[in-house]
Specification:
The complex is a heterodimer. Chain A is built from eight helices and 13 strands. Chain A is α/β, with parallel strands linked by helices. Chain B is mainly alpha-helical. Chain B has helices spanning 3-7, 12-44, 52-60, 67-102, 114-128, 140-160, 167-191, 194-205, 213-232, 234-240, 244-249, 254-276, 282-294, 298-322, 331-349. The longest helix of chain B has 36 residues, at 67-102. Chain B is globular. Classes of the chains: A alpha/beta, B mainly alpha.
Chain lengths: 249, 355
C-alpha cells in the first residue's frame, strides 16, 4: 500500500514564501484526505509542489523514498480549447510518455475511467462543447486513467451540480478503498469533507495548522479560527455529521 | 455513477474511437491521392502540354518517352513541382506547430515575422550584394534569407524568455517584427537602383521557378529530418493545446517543448522561404484545413497539415500556369489571392471545431 509523507516541505514564488515547512504524518493508501483552507492558503501550490512542478526545500517521501511514483493531478484549469473529442482527450492523458501506438489495453482503461465517472455517453462530444461541470468530470477522468497510486484533485466539485458532487465524491471514496489509492482532494465544502473524507489537512497562510481524522479536525473552533464563521456540527437522522453555519464573524 | 455507469459497460467508446481512427486514415489516404493527381497535372502543364498518360509513362519508365519529354519532365518541371510539395508541407507544418505551442490561431511563419526577416535578408543581397555569411554566388540570396529568418526566430524567442512575457505577447512581438522588417525593406528600396528594386519585388512575390534539384534536396532533407523529431513529441504537443497548466499536470514541460519546437519549425520555415521567397497563407490555411478534417491529435494532425500544405501549394502551382496561358504568375500572388478569402471564410463562418 502506498504511503505519502511530507517533510518540512516549502515553496516560494520569487521571494514570496507560499508554503512553509509542511510536515505530515504518513498518509496511507485506501483513504481520502481532504485538503482544506481559505482562498490563497496554498492548497494548489502544495499539489504542485508534491508533483514536482515547483522546487523548494523539504522532501516528498512516497513509500519512504523520494523516487518518482505514479502520481496524477487534476488542476483547476480544465483546458478545453483543443479540437478533440472527450474520448481522445482522456486517451491523451494516459498516453503521455508512451509510444505513439495505442494498445487495446489503453482503450479499455479510457472506457473504464469514463464509465466510473458516468460520462461514457460524452465520449464522442468535442471537449469545446461541454458545460463547465462536464469538463470537470473529463478532467477527473484524465487523472484517473493514468492509474495512479496517489491521486490529487484540486477542487474537483466546484462546477458540479449537487447530484454530481455527491456522485464524484462517492466514486472517489470507493476507488480509494478498491484500488488502495491515496486520494488528496482540495475542497471548499466542509460538509462534504466531513462526510466523504477520512483525514483532513488544513492550510492557512501556507502553514499546516491541523492534520488528522476529519471529524477531529473540522470543529467549530477550527471554523471560527480559519474561516471566521460561527458553526455547529450535528449528526443527522442517518448519523452523518452535518455542518450548520450560523454567521460570519 | 448511476444509470449511466451501467449503460457504459458496453464498449461503445472503444468502437467509436476505432471508427474515428479509420475515418482519419481514409482522409489521409485521400489527401495522398489528391496530391499525386495534382503533382501529375502540375508536371503535365507548361509551355509544352503533355497528356496525363504521357506524364505517368515518363515517371514510371523514363526510357519509354522521347528524350525531349524526359528532359522537360525530369530536369525542368520535376524540381519545381516537388518543391511546391516540400515548401507547402514545410510552411504548413511550421504554421501548425506555431499555432499549437503559442495557442494562437493566427501564428504562422508569415505573422511571426520569419518570412519578413527572410525577405529583408534576401533584399540586402539583391540590392547591395551584402552577404551575411560568405557563400557561393548562387546561394547568397537564400543564405541571407535563411540567416535573417533564423535571427528573427531567435530574437522572438529571446524576448519571449523575459519575465512577464506571455504567449499572447509573443504573437505581438512577431507582428512588431513584420512592421520593422517592412520599414527596413522600404528603406532598401529607397536607396537601391531601379533594377535592384525590381529584383527585390520579384523575390518577395514568391516563385517556385527558382527551384533546382540541389535546393530541393536540401529543403526535402530538412523536412524529412524535422518531421520525426516533431512526431516524437506527438502526445505532448497535443496536450499543449489543453493549456500549460493542464499539460504540466500530465507531465509535459511546456517551456522546454516550446523552445525545441520553435527552433525546429523556424528552421523549416526559414529553408522554405529562403529558396522560394515569401509565400503567404499556406502556414495559416493548411493547418486550419487539417484541423477541420482531422482534429488536433498530432498523430493525424501533423501528417494532415503537411499533406494539406503540399496539396494547396501544388494546386496553386497548377493555377499559376493556367490562369493566363503562357505566363507563370508568381505563386505567392496566387496563394494570397486564394488564401485571404478562404481565411476570411474560416474566421467568419464560426464552424464547429475550427479553433
Amino acid at each position: 500500500m502506498v504511503t505519502l509523507r511530507l517533510d518540512r516541505l516549502s515553496a516560494r514564488y520569487g521571494r514570496q514564501p507560499i508554503l512553509t515547512e509542511i510536515t505530515t504524518p504518513s498518509l496511507e493508501g485506501g483513504q481520502v484526505v481532504a485538503l482544506l483552507g481559505p482562498n490563497a492558503a496554498g492548497k494548489s501550490t502544495l499539489f504542485r509542489r508534491i508533483l514536482g512542478l515547483l522546487k523548494g526545500k523539504g522532501e516528498v517521501l512516497i513509500d519512504g523514498a523520494t523516487a518518482e511514483r505514479p502520481v496524477a493531478y487534476m488542476p483547476q484549469e480544465t483546458g478545453a480549447k483543443a479540437v478533440l473529442t472527450v474520448y481522445e482527450s482522456v486517451l491523451l492523458a494516459r498516453m503521455q510518455g508512451r509510444a505513439l501506438k495505442v494498445a487495446a489495453e489503453d482503450l479499455a482503461r479510457v472506457d473504464s475511467a469514463l464509465a466510473e465517472l458516468g460520462i461514457a455517453a460524452l465520449g464522442e462530444r468535442d471537449i469545446g462543447d461541454l458545460s463547465g461541470g462536464q469538463r470537470q468530470l473529463v478532467s477527473a477522468a484524465q487523472a484517473l486513467v493514468q492509474e495512479p497510486e496517489i491521486l490529487m484533485l484540486d477542487e474537483p466539485t466546484s462546477a458540479l451540480d449537487l447530484h454530481r458532487q455527491i456522485g464524484l465524491l462517492t466514486v472517489l471514496r470507493r476507488l480509494a478503498r478498491e484500488r488502495q489509492m491515496l486520494i488528496l482532494v482540495a475542497l471548499h465544502d466542509l460538509g462534504h469533507a466531513l462526510r466523504f473524507t477520512d483525514q483532513a489537512m488544513v492550510l492557512e497562510g501556507g502553514r499546516l495548522i491541523a492534520c488528522g481524522p476529519t471529524d477531529q479536525v473540522v470543529t467549530p473552533e477550527l471554523l471560527r479560527r480559519v474561516y471566521r464563521v460561527e458553526s455547529r456540527i450535528e449528526a443527522c437522522s442517518k448519523g452523518w455529521p452535518q455542518l450548520i453555519v450560523e454567521e460570519a464573524i | 455513477m448511476t444509470t449511466e455507469t451501467i449503460a457504459a459497460d458496453t464498449p461503445q467508446g472503444r468502437d467509436f474511437y476505432r471508427a474515428l481512427v479509420i475515418r482519419r486514415q481514409l482522409i489521409l489516404a485521400a489527401l495522398v491521392l489528391a496530391l499525386s493527381l495534382s503533382l501529375c497535372v502540375d508536371l503535365a502543364l507548361g509551355p509544352a502540354r503533355f497528356g496525363l498518360g504521357e506524364v505517368i509513362a515518363g515517371l514510371i519508365t523514363p526510357d519509354a518517352v522521347s528524350q525531349q519529354v524526359r528532359v522537360i519532365l525530369w530536369e525542368i518541371r520535376m524540381p519545381v513541382a516537388l518543391m511546391a510539395l516540400v515548401v507547402g508541407a514545410s510552411l504548413s507544418v511550421a504554421g501548425a506547430q506555431m499555432q499549437t505551442i503559442l495557442s494562437n490561431p493566427l501564428a504562422s511563419p508569415f505573422t511571426l515575422g520569419i518570412s519578413a526577416g527572410a525577405s529583408f535578408g534576401a533584399a540586402l543581397a539583391l540590392a547591395f550584394g551584402v552577404a551575411i555569411i560568405p557563400a557561393a554566388i548562387e546561394y547568397v540570396v537564400p543564405i541571407n534569407a535563411f540567416a535573417m529568418a533564423m535571427v528573427t526566430a531567435f530574437l522572438i524567442h529571446a524576448l519571449s524568455l523575459r519575465r512577464g512575457v506571455t504567449i499572447e505577447t509573443i504573437v505581438l512581438l512577431g507582428i512588431a517584427m513584420v512592421f520593422i522588417f517592412n520599414s527596413l525593406m522600404a528603406l532598401i528600396q529607397f536607396f537601391a537602383s531601379q533594377q535592384a528594386v525590381a529584383a527585390v519585388v520579384f523575390w518577395t512575390l514568391g516563385s517556385l521557378t527558382k527551384a533546382t534539384w540541389p535546393k530541393l534536396w536540401i529543403a526535402a532533407g530538412v523536412l524529412a529530418a524535422v518531421l520525426p523529431l516533431l512526431a516524437r513529441h506527438g502526445w505532448a504537443l497535443t496536450a499543449m493545446r489543453l493549456g500549460d497548466a493542464k499539460a504540466e499536470s500530465l507531465g509535459v514541460k511546456p517551456r522546454a517543448l516550446r523552445l525545441e519546437v520553435l527552433v525546429l519549425v523556424s528552421l523549416l520555415a526559414a529553408i522554405a522561404v529562403a529558396f522560394v521567397g515569401t509565400i503567404g497563407f499556406i502556414g495559416l490555411v493548411g493547418p486550419h484545413i487539417a484541423r477541420l478534417l482531422l482534429g488536433e491529435d498530432q498523430r493525424f494532425f501533423l501528417p494532415g497539415a503537411a499533406l494539406c500544405g503540399a496539396l494547396i501549394l501544388s494546386v496553386g502551382s497548377v493555377l499559376s500556369k493556367v490562369i493566363i496561358p503562357g505566363t507563370i504568375i508568381p505563386i505567392g500572388i496566387i496563394t494570397s489571392l486564394v488564401g485571404i478569402p478562404f481565411f476570411l471564410f474560416l474566421v467568419l463562418s464560426h464552424k464547429k471545431a475550427s479553433w
